[in-house]
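Forwarding these from the shared drive since the link keeps breaking.
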Amino acid sequence: MPDAAAATLQSIGHIGLAGAVGFLIGFEREWTHALEKREHTFAGARTFTLVGLIGGLAGALAEGPVLIAAALVAVGALTLYAYAIEARESPGRGGTTEMAIFATLLLGAAAGKGFLLVASAGSVTVAIILSLKNEIKSVARALDAREIHAALRFLAIAVLVLPVLPDERFGPYGALNPRELWTMVVLISGLSFLGYWLMKALGPGHGMLATGLVGGLASSTATTLSLSKLARDGACASAVAAGIIMANVVMLARVGVILVAVSKATLALIAPALAASALVGGAAAFLLWRGSARTGEASRALTLGNPFELRPALFFAATIAAISIASAFGAERFGMAGIYAIGAISGLADVDAMTLSGGRQAATGAIIAEVAARAILLAIGANIFVKGAMAVAIGGGRTGARVILAFAAIFVVGAAAAYFTI
């Protein structure tokens, strides 16, 4: 008897959660309908609560799917009938509430079956989706065809291509793993995509520092180039330098994020140098920004293109593959010196590729973590040198001098930290 009583109380709790699931979703519908000033609505808080309870009872009482299926048929028939009546009175109306009823019934059944986390998380998710009607419409109207196509391409490489790629090693030295390579492409593309949307959301009016901060997520090189052009056109040298430095501080943070994903052992070695360099760079950027002339003119937007195109993604994959093979070749023929040379040379064009390649090889044991860490730091040093030269050549002496001084401090502090930790 005690066991039966405990089971009964547990079932009552599950059914109670099913009712709470329905009430949460129904309350959102009630609130939305009141906001839209609808006098007659098909379903509100009470109806949804009852639908949740029906699902909970079906899940708790049924051993198999028959009772749940019967509940779906009964509730579905009533829902479709009510929708048909309202659709005749209001042509073109959506079916969001009706679909929410089906979701409520299934979530209630999940609660009745004891899948409490699924039911709770599902109800919150449904309520959030329902409440975002206006925001979703606003975003949809704001997107252009180029952005939609870019988003679909990104989803394609992340959801369609990645799962079907073989997780095996191919090529010279067994250095190429198609799934690992494509995972790196997805990671970098995702960071660039995030940077693009943050840039669009913030707009150009938040100053050079914010522009560098957000633009650095997409591409610190593109940010350096674009801000240098603004300096050439007469923008405040200190403000431009602050933006460029901040973009490269973000680049240091990106290296850390990438290593979290591919090699925590390498990150542990390189973290002090990254942190010290980032602190010095951040302080320099803030001081330059604070001391910059306040003209009241909004900073101009960066000319960052579409954050994801298939050709750059494939080129990036090819770059990583080439660096992986070259690193393996250099390690075999020349030992650590070969890997360091490859790190320095690859850093002239890109840091992410060496970070991903070196981190991955350290994770698989192809090279030791200390070698990977030094190669990545060499790539960072070479990359910062190139961007400093870019700031001088394009932005002019006043902007370039500020950037070079800050980069020199970043390099010295990072090198000192690396000397004592690696």
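-- next protein --
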Amino acid sequence: MTVRRVAVLSDTHGHLTALRAVLADADASGVTEVVVAGDIVNFGPSSAAVVDLLRECGARLVRGNHEVELVAPYGTPGMPEWLRSSVRYTVARFTMEQLGAERRAFLAALPDRLELDAATLVTHGSPRHVRDGVTESRTDEELRAFWNGHHALTAFVGHTHRPVVRVVPPAAEAAEGEAVRRFVNVGSAGFNLDGDPRVSYALATPGPSGNPGDWQVEIRRVAYDVEAGVREFDNGYRDACGEYAEVFSRQLRTGRHYFGPWVRASGGLPEDEVLPSLRRFLAENP
């Protein structure tokens, strides 16, 4: 009998070289299913090819915040002005045009969650919200709130680009017999931000009890040809916005966060100051 072996990925973000390495590792590990917990596109240079590869291999996909907030409204009457014209979203527009209408419609129609069994959920941030982040620093109380009434015992998530497994005990005032729950943040199959440039995914096999929600989980880190990943930006992306190509190339090489700190530091700047501020940030943060 074939043992069920599930590769749970997240945050591929249009990085084809990294995704191919993860899928090769999963295949060598005997994986029978591939599931992706959102943020399939944007930031990276090869979003269209990433979507095509995941569809070809029969992966089950859910939406992340990039699919919800950028792909779904793009080209619709409800498309926000910032997405239509802001320099901050130059890369998003490059990505949306690269994807084309058919892929955008496919991504926009994906579910926001799916179940691996009756007690196992796959979603992007948490059962509560697509932008919730399951991290090492979250308190148990915060993580209990993330379930938002959902019955699952195990949830596979992404969003933070930092893999971690958090076991969440019941609250002190919980009824007797309340179950321990677990979040498995699989990190990113596109680029991690924990100081380790290797990408990651979760390899899950049914646990010894055979009960729903019981999984043996291994977080696998996968080395790949980072410089080949950097060269992907030469597909027109670097011409569209060289500063953004440099930001994300540095993240690939170092496993450190450049984009988020700059976004927070540059909030509120007028449009004509955005790229100069990014150039200064890059010069000050090699």
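The mean pLDDT is 97. The two ends are 52 Å apart (CA to CA).

- D.
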